[in-house]
Amino acid sequence: MKNIRYAVALVLMLSAMNSMAQDKFEIAGKLSGAGSDKKVVLSYKNSDGKDAKDSAVVKNGKFTMAGTTLYGNKAYLSLVPLKKDTTKRQSDYQEFYLEKGKYKVTGKDSIATASITGAQAQSDFIQYNAQTKALLTQFKDITQRFTKIYYAKVKDTVAIKTIQAEARPVHAKIEAALDSFIFSHPDSYVTLDLIRQNKTAVIDPATFGRYYDPLSKRVLASPTGQKLTDKYDKAKKIAVGKVVDFTQPDAEGKEFKLSSLRGKYVLVDFWASWCVPCRAENPHLLKAYKQLKDKGFEIVGVSLDETKAAWQNAVKHDGMPWIQVSDLKGFKTDIAVQYGITAIPQNFLINPDGMIVAKDLRGADVNEKIAAFIK
Predict the structure, then answer these.
(1) I need a labelling partner for 155 at 20 to 30 A (CA). Which of 261, 278, 326, 356 fits?
(2) CA 328, CA 199: separation in Å to the nearest integer?
């Protein structure tokens, strides 16, 4: 009897969980000038969290859609001809946030210019866009002008510096608007995406908590929230104060263990041959290596290359005499996965006891920054 009651309870619990996961949505659209030879295509995450598509033919300027999705996710609506014209690029689309609820699409002959209203996440998205649209448009114009001058055959260094100076205050205003939205919307899927897109290239555990800690349990329970938590947890493994160790093969395939250098200050540098900013740092690291190698200092380069030839050619070309290791798996290298390294260059300095004492030491004065730790 007990087994029967347990089985019934289990079935009811699973049924309740499934009903919670089935976030039903409805979309009703009116495009008065779309004609009768178009259809609307919806690209979104289904209730399993997988990429999915649905479509509806526009009839008398109207269309409807319904389905289930998973939490709040960025989706796309596009308007396309029923008979696809392969000679033309299809670009009439708009991104929006889809979650449980009813949505209304109102426009004339274009999805890109239509109004999409609905659940809370979409309202948040509309608010964020309104707050940043003018700044982002201004910054895009600056970027385009900078790119044109920077990649010209003859570089105008004065113009480059002028545009860079123009860009700084605009960029600062964009960052301020971004932070303002994030801190005022801790229970928003939009906030979650904004943090993931703008604040996680390199996570510093000492400062990232101000963005992560206010987030609600609801948004952190989503797939994106779980991924953010996982990356944050990995970043904590290489926070200042943590003792680290790893094993990686060198160019000859011999296993190198970081702890074999205990007793020295060691800069662990994540880089790759294809990474331009990484290669730009190498002359500065070489200067530091030459000045400090006889004072108990070593560098270990962890390459995120995927081919040995590219890795070794870069080592030779840049004249890097320090220890080099790699398992040639790119960002899937064991260490990168373990520590959540998804952007380079990154580095950390460990003391003779194997404890991290500083992170991301770069620039022309990197030798002085490192020397300050070596007594």
Answers:
(1) 278
(2) 27
Return the amino acid letter for 200. T
Domains of the chain are 2-118 (2.60.40.1120), 122-236 (no CATH), 247-371 (3.40.30.10)
In 317-367, the DSSP E strands lie at 323-325, 346-350, 356-359
pLDDT digits (tens, 9 = 90+) for 313-337: 999 999 999 999 999 999 999 999 9
Measure the CA–CA gap between 93 and 167, rounded to whole angstroms.
29
In whole angstroms, give the CA distance from residue 185 to residue 203: 21
- pLDDT tens digits, one per residue of 49-78: 899 999 999 999 999 999 999 899 999 999
Judged by phi (left if over 0) then psi (alpha if -120 to 50, else beta), residue 360 lies in left
CB-based contact 267:244 (threshold 8 Å): no
Q: What share of the chain is helix, strand, coil (3-state, %, to 5)?
A: 45, 25, 30
Question: For 212-231, how does the pLDDT look when each residue is reduced to its tens digit (9 = 90+)?
Answer: 999 999 999 999 999 999 99
3-state class of 17 per DSSP? helix
- Tell me how crowded residue 118 is: count the other CB atoms within 10 A of its CB: 23
Mean pLDDT of the chain: 91
